[in-house]
Amino acid sequence: MTGALANVDAGFAQALAERRDRLDLGLIERAFEFSAAAHRGQKRLSGDAFISHSVEVAKILVDQYLDSVTIAAALLHDVAEDADVSLHGIREAFGDEVGGIVDGLTKISSLTFRSSEEEQVENYRKLLLSIARDARVIMVKLADRLHNMRTLEHLPREAQHRIAVETREIYAPLAHRFGMAGIKAELEDLAFKFLEPDDYRTLVKKVQARRAEREEMVNRLRTPLEEALKRAGIADFEVTGRPKHLWSIYKKMRQRNKPFEEIYDLMAVRVLVHSVADCYHALGVIHHHWTPLQERIKDYIASPKSNAYQSLHTTVFGPGGQLYEIQIRTREMHRTAEFGIAAHWVYKESRPRETSSGSPRVRPPLISRSPSTPRWGSTARAPRSMAASPRCTGPSRTATRWKSSPRRRHAPARTG
Predict the structure, then answer these.
(1) What is the rounded average pLDDT for all residues in the chain?
(2) DSSP H helical segments within 261-313, as ranges?
(3) Which residues are known catalytic residues?
(4) Between the N and C ends of the chain, which has fewer C-beta atoms within 10 Å?
């Protein structure tokens, strides 16, 4: 990378350098220079140079391990709309793949969300997907919306409210259906910040005040759990705590009609293991040592969620009678849970780098309209009594094909 990009954002340049073995840095640098020239002299309402937004959007996608074409398109995503550059010029300079993503983003930006009625919200999501046949168009749009939400305080209050509503009702559900859990959670928390500001500030203070208590609670379970897994012969596992995000806590408070002080499952424990067999083995070990709540045992390995999420969920009475939510999954499942269909572009170390043109060696998932691909609003298979969320007509079957898992054997409950 030249010093030009490093001077704008050293962190972005460093992140690219760390992934140089799988990215076409030449393509990305050309896209940056093209975008910087097109946006020269333009400022955001924050006073920052306009190119800084494009870089931040691209940085989010680098962190999601997306490919060079997507990162280049992110750097160029506002060029056709906000600068004097034609889509034809972008296609000539960067090829049809990058140009097609920018074209889809430009069309989406012209849409106006006008109604919060449930039917209209769903129609708007369908319209987005009908425009964006390449799933990467939606992923760039989600990154664009995330950075705009991070800087929303610079807009007038009326615009803040409109964009936050749109984020909660359109973009956070899209992130969920694409399986991008981290982006979904941050979008929801940021929308919460601007739509219920007083409740948000109050909850932030309460959560911060109990942080040490929550960490100590996790540690009380982590040590005996690790010892039990080792005794059971399960190797190569990790046990970590996962705090619930603010909007999730707030929804629990409203649904249960309880104050924050009476919401106990604020922290989930996550167990990462090597194989599917280890997942079920670990579940049996946990239930042998701690009594589970039968209605809270969910098997999303045998019956994945519609966005390809797989994991075992259980809630047990842990040390001191405290309720603990535990998730058990393989590392591959964890990567899918964090990045969703973006995990399609995570290259294994043994894979060759991309072609010099920046085209990935694997075909990107399309948002298919074929009869074999479930449509929005169809019902996905769900474990037990859990209602399935509408299935996204997102990645094709080849993009979400997972190794079949063995039929689940029920883990034994504790006998004494």
Answers:
(1) 80
(2) 276-289
(3) 81-82
(4) C
Query: Does pTM surpass 0.85?
Result: no
Give the distance from CA 220 to its chain's centroid.
Answer: 29
Q: Which residue is it, tokens 């209050």?
A: 157
User: What's the pLDDT band for 242 if we cut at 50, 70, 90?
Assistant: confident
Helix (H, G, I), strand (E, B) or coil at 52: helix
What does R_g of the chain's alpha carbons equal in angstroms?
A: 23
Rounded Cα distance between 96 and 103, Å, is: 10
CB neighbours (10 Å) of residue 73?
31
Segment 313-348, tens digit of pLDDT: 999 999 888 889 999 999 999 988 888 876 655 543
Task: Show the domains of the chain with their CATH numbers.
Answer: 3-195 (1.10.3210.10), 210-344 (3.30.460.10)
DSSP letters, 317-379, are E-GGG-EEEEEEEEHHHHHHHHHGGGGGG---TTS----TT---SSPPPB---STTSPPTTPB
Banded pLDDT at 8 (limits 50, 70, 90)? low
Q: CA–CA separation, 24 vs 263, rounded Å?
A: 48
Report helix, strand or coil for 234: coil
Using DSSP, state whether 201 is helix, strand or coil: helix
Say if CB 140 and CB 31 are below 8 A apart: no
Cα–Cα distance measured from residue 326 to residue 271, given in angstroms and rounded to the nearest whole number:
7
Higher pLDDT, 373 or 240: 240
349's tokens:
């170390």
Query: Cβ distance 166 to 191 under 8 Å?
Result: no
Beta bridge partners of 327: 270, 313
pLDDT band at residue 211 under the 50/70/90 scheme: confident
